[in-house]
Design brief:
Elements lengths: L1 H22 L5 E4 L4 H11 L9 H16 L7 E6 L5 E7 L5 E4 L12 H8 L11 H17 L13 E3 L4 E3 L1
Parallel strand pairs: 1-3, 4-6
Antiparallel strand pairs: 2-3, 5-6
């Protein structure tokens, strides 16, 4: 009976130590499967603050959700993401089947009041960085809003306000509207 108790205790200690050793590794580097550079750079930049932390289920969940957000920011809303540890290293490998990107179906920008007749603002509207059929890029959407706001202010329309502004993603149709 004592021998059985000692074996069980040794097994428990061994299991406990191996579990702790596995949990002790830190994600020090990220490696990517095959994907466009723009996507891997965006993911890498997003995940950089999560490096050098002990790997855990919580960290894995953060890594997955942040990877998903980084892909969505560049129009990829249908990605299947897998994380795996590169054998005998502290490198995390991220692979993603990115699927088809979401594209702008329509962009609707309406200026009301006096500013509607301003030729400078009409030129600004014609040169905004988002166009129908382009892949959705959240930075371009924010840049468009910023350009419009600064253009309105520079022309003296200090009392302007957004009546609505939204980025509508239709995942099933793989389209976006504004």
């Amino acid at each position: 009976m004592k021998l059985f108790a000692i074996v069980v205790i040794c097994w428990c200690l061994t299991f406990s130590l191996s579990t702790q050793a596995e949990a002790q590794w830190q994600v020090e580097a990220i490696e990517f499967g095959e994907m466009p550079d723009e996507l891997s750079k965006n993911i890498n930049g997003t995940l950089k603050p999560l490096l050098n932390q002990p790997f855990s289920q919580s960290l894995e969940n953060k890594l997955l959700s942040q990877t998903e957000r980084a892909l969505q920011a560049l129009g990829y809303y249908h990605a299947n993401i897998t994380l795996s540890r590169v054998e005998q290293s502290s490198t995390l490998k991220i692979e993603a089947e990115i699927g088809e990107p979401i594209r702008w179906k329509s962009i609707q920008i309406e200026i009301k009041g006096e500013a509607n007749k301003d030729s400078f603002l009409q030129k600004v509207l014609s040169s905004i960085p988002i166009k129908a059929n382009d892949i959705v890029n959240h930075d371009n959407y924010e840049q468009t809003k910023s350009v419009l706001e600064s253009s309105l202010i520079s022309k003296g329309y200090f009392d302007f306000k957004w009546l609505t502004h939204r980025l509508e993603i239709h995942k099933q149709k793989k389209l976006c509207g504004s």
